[in-house]
Amino acid sequence: SESAEKKKRKIECGVCFDGPDEIEASGRSLVSTNCGHIFCSDCIKLAIKNCKQCPQCRKRLTMKQFHALYI
């Protein structure tokens, strides 16, 4: 059985914390990196441009190492 904490977990950008509705309404995309973390397209592009790494786990990333999520 899952804990109550896991059931409450929602999908959102790991940087700006916007959910799918806010992301879509503003013309951004929800994306996942190759390391499995979820961000909005604007936040991950900025993070890769500035730091060349995942904002959550710091794995080295390039602009080709994330893809859109269709949920």
UniProtKB/TrEMBL annotation:
Keywords on record: Ligase, Metal-binding, Zinc, Zinc-finger
InterPro entries given in the database record: RNF4, Znf_RING, Znf_RING/FYVE/PHD, Znf_RING_CS
Span of domain RING-type: 13-58
**Gene3D superfamilies noted in UniProt:** Zinc/RING finger domain, C3HC4 (zinc finger)
Protein's name in the database: E3 ubiquitin ligase RNF4
Classify the source by domain of life. Eukaryota
Which terms in the Gene Ontology molecular function aspect does this entry carry?
ligase activity; zinc ion binding
Q: Which PANTHER family does its entry note?
A: E3 UBIQUITIN-PROTEIN LIGASE RNF4, RING FINGER DOMAIN-CONTAINING
Q: Which PROSITE patterns match?
A: ZF_RING_1, ZF_RING_2
